[in-house]
């Protein structure tokens, strides 16, 4: 049993992959944040299934309440908006069927990308806002790996399957730490183009049932700061205030995410960064492959 450290009186919440229980006062918090009540949830699920039953252009997954609630909670139980989000979610594959969540494939087929150790999920949610914390280490990527920046989409989507069904994650969303240590500016200019930025933002905002509450950028260079200032024009105004630049100042990061849940690479107290989620993710391979057959025909 993993010991849970204390954080100034706040209780740490351990992400348990198989635990889909709602935390204390969940309904009270859910009603305040998105107008969710037991009655509205049940009615929205019925209405959503009824609408999906009339779909002819793609095959939706409708047999799992937790899956449907991803979309309903992401759009505050507006069934029409949840339906549009699901359509966009499945349409991503149409842009490149061999690159984006390909049919008949799962996490084990992308082991070489996970071996790059470019990302992980922290074991604990942030006790200050309840978000699940994702670390993206773009500086670990090299052009010499033979993989392009867009190749990370499918492995990231698979990793999200570990926590996307958890009610607390659906309610509170995600915090993202982007670590740019080791990322060459020349690679940034060549590979992270406006088109790439546009695609990634489009996927995150319009095509995935994911609520990103904050993005913390660390270990970035001065030149990157200049590029970011220019690139902000591609970010909708609503999202601009969710980005925080920390450089190498981890004390600044700790104002938002406590040291007690961070690995030592970010001034934390949980030991070296680990990739604990991979065995759990690989164990879900068959289920993810089965789910890959839903959506639009390709």
From TrEMBL:
Gene3D superfamilies: Alpha-tocopherol transfer, CRAL-TRIO lipid binding domain, N-terminal domain of phosphatidylinositol transfer protein sec14p. One of its GO terms (molecular function) is phosphatidylinositol bisphosphate binding. GO terms for cellular component: membrane. CDD domains: SEC14. It holds the Pfam family CRAL_TRIO_N. SUPFAM superfamilies: CRAL/TRIO domain, CRAL/TRIO N-terminal domain. Residues 109-274 form the CRAL-TRIO domain. This is Alpha-tocopherol transfer protein-like.
């Amino acid at each position: 049993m993993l010991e849970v450290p204390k954080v100034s009186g706040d209780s740490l919440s351990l992400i348990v992959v198989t635990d889909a229980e709602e935390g204390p006062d969940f309904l009270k918090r859910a009603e305040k944040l998105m107008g969710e009540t037991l009655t509205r949830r049940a009615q929205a699920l019925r209405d959503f299934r009824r609408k999906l039953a009339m779909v002819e252009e793609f095959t939706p997954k409708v047999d799992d309440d937790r899956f449907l609630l991803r979309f309903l909670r992401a759009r505050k139980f507006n069934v029409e908006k949840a339906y549009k989000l699901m359509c966009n979610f499945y349409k991503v594959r149409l842009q490149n069927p061999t690159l984006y969540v390909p049919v008949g494939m799962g996490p084990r087929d992308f082991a070489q990308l996970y071996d790059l150790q470019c990302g992980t999920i922290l074991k604990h949610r942030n006790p200050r806002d309840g978000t699940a914390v994702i670390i993206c280490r773009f500086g670990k990527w090299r052009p010499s790996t033979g993989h392009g920046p867009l190749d990370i989409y499918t492995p990231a989507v698979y990793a999200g399957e570990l926590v996307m069904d958890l009610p607390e994650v659906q309610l509170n969303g995600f915090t993202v730490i982007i670590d740019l240590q080791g990322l060459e500016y020349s690679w940034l200019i060549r590979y992270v183009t406006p088109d790439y930025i546009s695609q990634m933002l489009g996927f995150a905002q319009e095509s995935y049932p994911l609520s990103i509450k904050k993005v913390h950028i660390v270990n970035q260079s001065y030149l990157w700061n200049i590029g970011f200032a220019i690139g902000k024009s591609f970010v909708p105004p609503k999202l601009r205030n969710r980005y925080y630049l920390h450089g190498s100042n981890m004390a600044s990061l700790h104002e938002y995410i406590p040291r007690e849940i961070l690995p030592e690479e970010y001034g934390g107290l949980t030991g070296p960064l680990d990739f604990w989620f991979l065995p759990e993710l690989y164990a879900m391979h068959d289920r993810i492959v089965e789910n890959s057959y839903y959506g639009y025909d390709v």
